Prior knowledge:
Blueprint: H1 2-32, H2 37-60, H3 67-80, H4 88-112, H5 117-142, H6 151-170, H7 177-199
Helix pairs in contact: 1-5, 1-6, 1-7, 2-3, 2-5, 3-4, 4-5, 5-7, 6-7
Amino acid sequence: MTTTKNSFIDKAINGLKEAAVELEEFQVQVALGKAEAHDKYEDLKKAFSARLGKIRQDLKHEENHSEELLKKLDELHFQLLTGKAETLKVFNEQKEKIFKEINAIENELKMKMAGTELYLKLSDELKKFRIKMEILKLRFELGKMDVADDFEAMKAEFSKKTEELKELFAKGEHIAEKNWELFRDKVAEAYAHLKKTFVNIN
């Protein structure tokens, strides 16, 4: 059980660290302005849709998979295929619809797949996408982006939080149901800090 627990926690921590790297790369690409915000948005939707497609295939092979979750993933995929957003107004309208579908998926995940590796995988993708959308929104609004002066300090604080998270659960025997909500909340807290790091733009 300990090995399973450690493996699960390691995957959660590694997911957070990989998310930090991915978000930093995305922020740099957007800040450099190598592509217009609306073009970057289209690229983001396509990449996100492809990742969701792979997760959906994994989900279908799960013995006790949720048909409702598959349906909600299809609905999100449909929203991602909507037309281009050439203006901030259209971007915000699409963002609202996409986030509504993401909220529905997250609720279904909590009810049906809590404590599973697939939960971690899909939850990570949804949270990263949310943050990337907020980064793009700034690009749409400001036309340019400057990295916050305390960016490195915020990254260091995030690393500290992930280590605290690992230590907190390394002391337990395994992630039992009673610990799952606490673990999930701590991961959500780490992602909230990531959002602050990457969307706190000067």
